[in-house]
Write a structure and sequence with these properties.
The protein is built from 10 helices and 23 strands. The protein is an alpha+beta fold. It has 2 domains: 112 residues, NE0471 N-terminal domain-like; 265 residues, Double-stranded beta-helix. The strands form 7 sheets. A 6-stranded mixed β-sheet has the order 10-11-21-14-23-12. A 4-stranded antiparallel β-sheet has the order 1-2-3-4. Helix 5 packs across helix 10 and helix 7 packs across helix 9. 28% of the residues are buried.
Length: 396
């Protein structure tokens, strides 16, 4: 192990390296703000971005990992005039260069990973009367406004948009700002109008309990959009939103064993409409609560109406039912619900993997048009907007 070497870098460089200590299998980098990073030699060589190796960060790669010696080590270390780390590798003498911004952005120390993790804003009924609303024309015309709204959806799981023209095809223009419409057996767009010939509950005027949409599909639809062309004359039909993350977190705090069970046991969901009108036999199994690799809640999948008979081992049946009842009680509780009546010319956009939606009963001619947009494209556009407009993005 060598003694740390002092690095002089331009004061304008942000972030900047204060010192580098060469260790047996990695480099220890100390930054001017006091943070410390460890970068393994094999990781650094694998992430060389020269024209010969390609760019692993951007998904354009030429270097094959099998060609890298697992015991590779630097032959020479230096810092160039711009503050970038230069490494000449033992063996073939290959030269790699890493800017301080790139290294800091990709630091994989535990505290850096924690800072980079998405931290959703949990909410409940106390959000009533405090919902932020966005102007449709601004969202379409201004990248900065669209970024703010996309980030709001990332944080809260939903957004309300005003002044959307009440034209039947306007939802397609709205959806195009977020991604690509996902076509299903309902078509690209689905009209929610109460009708005597209803085949699903959404086509009635009845109240509907909070739920995620279409859990009988694989993959589950990503963003759920509603555009109100006509509100019910009776004043009913208000939309009800529930933060599934908040409800799941509360279950975790109050009934940890039930929470763990619903993270493990898949729940079957079905939509069978096989007759002279439809030929649909959709089936999928989803855990009610999904966790990421850090144990954080990353998705909830709750829809009591589409649940099929449980298909689990006999010793789990009653515990699973008890856990589901407890979770549904939390989701349906008034203190979890935000109520918002969409008027004509308003739209709601929700992350269908987090926010549950419901509807109050009504007695009128309510007309809502809805569609689904793929979630991966939405988050791609969010990241692209951040890169273009947020100059500090690489430092967070």
């Amino acid at each position: 192990m060598n003694r740390p070497i002092r690095i002089e870098t331009p004061s304008k460089q942000r972030p900047s390296i204060e010192s580098i200590e060469r260790q047996k299998r990695n480099l220890s980098v100390r930054w001017e703000d006091g943070h410390q990073s460890l970068f393994h030699h094999i990781w650094l060589r694998d992430n060389c971005t020269c024209s010969q190796c390609g760019d692993r960060s951007g998904g354009h790669r030429y270097l094959e990992l099998g060609s890298v010696d697992p015991d590779i080590a630097p032959e020479e270390l230096s810092i160039d005039s711009s503050g970038s780390l230069q490494i000449r590798w033992q063996g073939d003498g290959h030269l790699s260069s890493y800017t301080p911004a790139w290294l800091r952005e990709h630091c994989y120390s535990s505290d850096s990973i924690v800072r980079r993790r998405q931290q959703p804003v949990l909410w409940d009924s106390t959000l009533n009367g405090k919902i932020h609303e966005w102007d449709y024309e601004q969202v379409l015309a201004e990248d900065s406004t669209r970024l703010q709204m996309f980030q709001h959806i990332n944080d809260y799981g939903f957004a309300i948009i005003n002044a959307v023209p009440t034209l039947e095809d306007q939802i397609e223009s709205l959806a195009s700002a977020f991604g690509f419409i996902r076509e299903t057996h309902y078509g690209r767009i689905f009209d929610l109008i109460s009708t005597p010939q209803q085949r699903i509950l959404a086509q009635t005027a009845h109240a509907i309990r909070p739920h995620n949409d279409e859990l009988f599909r694989d993959p589950i639809p990503g963003l759920f959009m509603m555009h109100c062309l006509r509100a019910s004359e009776c004043g009913g039909g208000a939309s009800i939103l529930v933060d599934g993350f908040s409800a799941a977190q509360r279950l975790r705090s109050e009934h940890e064993e039930m929470f763990d069970l619903l993270c493990r046991v898949p729940i079957p969901h079905r939509r069978f409409l096989v007759d002279d009108v439809d030929d649909v036999a959709l089936s999928a199994n989803w855990r009610s609560i999904e966790l990421d690799r850090y144990g954080d809640i990353k998705a909830v999948h709750i829809n009591e109406r589409t649940m099929a008979p449980l298909d689990t081992d006999e010793n789990s049946v009653e515990p699973v039912y008890q856990a589901l009842q407890q979770l549904l009680a939390l989701v349906y509780a008034p203190e979890t619900c935000v109520t918002y009546r969409l008027e004509a010319g308003q739209a709601a956009v929700m992350d269908n993997h987090r926010v549950l939606h419901a509807r109050a009963a009504f007695n009128g001619n309510r007309h809502i048009r809805q569609c689904h947009v793929d979630r991966d494209e939405f988050f791609s556009r969010l990241r692209a907007l951040r890169r273009r407009l947020d100059s500090d993005q690489v430092y967070r």
